[in-house]
Every structure is written in C-alpha cells, then in structure tokens.
Amino acid sequence: MLHPVMARTVLSRPKGYKAGIVLRVVPQLTHRSRRLWTRGVLASLAVLAVLQGGVAYQLAVRSHRPPTFLRGGRFDQSAPVGPGAGPVGATPAAPAPAVAPTTITAGPGTGGTSNNALPSGRGVGAGPGPRSGAIGAAATVPRLGTYTWAVSGTETATGFGSRSFPNQMTMVAHGDNGLGPSQVVLDITYSSDHTEREILDRTASGLAFDFEGGQVTFGGVSQNNQGDYRPPMVQVPGQLSPGQTVTGTSQVIASDGSTERTEDWTVHVVDQETLTVAGQAVPTWKVTIDRVSRPGSSQKITRSRTYWYDPTRALWVKYTEREHGEQPYGPFTFTYDDDLTATLSSFQPA
Q1: How far is CA 305 from CA 28, 35, 225, 231, in A?
Q2: pTM for this one?
Q3: Cys-Cys with 137: which of 45, 127, 241, 347 at CB 3.0–4.6 Å?
C-alpha cells in the first residue's frame, strides 16, 4: 500500500507506443491538506490509545477484582470441596441457625391458613421425606456450610461467543450482621468468571429471594448486576401440594433507590418426585418458576428455573435454568444467555 502523503509514481503504456515506459507523476498533497490529514491521524491514534488503555484496565484490574455486592458482606469464594467433604446425605455436626416458627398463609384453594412450626436443627439428609399436602419436619433455611454441585451447560454473551460451564460449582451458605433472623446468604461460584449471590428469606409466602446479584466476565470485561426484590420473589411456596400456583410482581431496587426493572413471576408446584442424588434416594417437590420483565424496563429478562426441592434441607438438590437478558449501552445492546443443570453432590458444614 502506498502512503497517501508520498508522491505516487504510476507505470503505464500509452496507446500508440509499442515499447517504452512513460512515467506519470502525481503531485504531492498541498500543505493545508497534509496538515488536516496529520491532525486526523493523531486524533485517531489518541482515541486508539484511550481504548487500549481501557481494555488494559479491564484485563489487568477490573476482571481480577473479587465480586462485590451491596448486601451480604464479603463474598465467600471457597475453593471446591475436596474428598474430605461429607456425602450429600451426611448429617452435619454444626447446628442450624435458630429461626422462629413461621406462619404461612395458604393461597387460593388450599383451605385457608395454617400455622406450621418449622423446627430448626434439621441437617442435610435428616428427617423424613415430604408428605402430600404438608411440609412437616422441614427446615427453615439451608444449613450453613459449603455445598458442591455437579454442573453441565453453556453461557453466551454478545460478541464473545459461547462457553461451557466448569463441571463443578460451589455454593457457600453463610450469615451476615445485616441479615434478618430468617435469612441466609448463598454465595455461588461457577468459575472465576461467573459468580452469583442470593439472599434467601423464609417469608410467610414461602422461601423467597430477598436479594440477587451476579458478576460475569467475558473477554476480560466484567458485568455486575444486583438489586433487592420488593416484595421478595417466592421460589418455593410455603404450602406444597400438586398444582399449587403462586403469582406475584417484584421490583428490582438499585442501591440509589431507583427501580431497575419490574418482574412478573409465576411459581407452580408440579408434584412429588424422588431423585437419586449421590447414590441416595431423595424425596423432593418439583417446582417451577417463570419470570419476565415488564416492557419499559431498562433491563429485559426472561428466566425459567425448575427446582427439585427437599424440605428437610430447605434447599433444592437439583435445578435447571434457562435465561435471556438484555441491557442497552449507548447504541449497543449487551445480551446474555445461559442453559444449565446443577445437581448437589456433597456438603461440608461450616
């Protein structure tokens, strides 16, 4: 390629000439044109330097920062549990946090209200399985400790393509001074590039998300979203019976008090189902939740989960998730999708 400032020499063979070469010299640019061109090049180089600096910052600093969330304290990013962890059915030695009995208001068609005392102290694997129409002998919130899960699936982001989840994920259940007596923090590490936090709350309507946040890194660029749910978003109804459905609407509140989006959600109890988890039969309730953001929200999301919920653990032992999210950034729209399955494989008490 010829430099635009240089005189261009073109070799040609004019008509009527059988031999010989004629040199046609194109004059150099004028002084004013050359000056304008030079300014344009310098401006382009300056912009490129800024962009490269931003990328370097993302790669060297931001993408290596531990996840930070507004609620729940320091993120507990424990290493994957090794062979010393107890099997999924083991009873932890540590006691569960004491929680007062919860009064649960049943939904339409469930026969009014029931006052179910949900005793604390139920360990992983402790207590009988679920009984039709009741959640007796159930825990209130999950035991504190590290849960390890087997994972399969993929996630995709705009401009970065798709990648597979690592085959193991850890979830650390812990407390924090800012939590209520019926709340527990779940810190989830799929990989160093994908972490999430959920704050579970045992409400009158059931086990619900009071807060949710996540940090995902693709190509050295990290995206962090988080917010409080008002009211809390039910994940598992307090009354478990086949066909039970609970619907609601929750706003996602940012740290400055603004509403990031509004989500409509529907929770449906499918039926009881016994799973084999780590070689053991575990009676569960199969529960689905479908969420969708309302039009006009700055963040758009559709998300579906299926839980296989074990009341004796106050936690699901398996779940699937399919999610699609969009968020505009100037003239561009960032999209994120995932499709995953996670199954509990072991537990180590705190």
Answers
A1: 67, 61, 19, 19
A2: 0.69
A3: 127
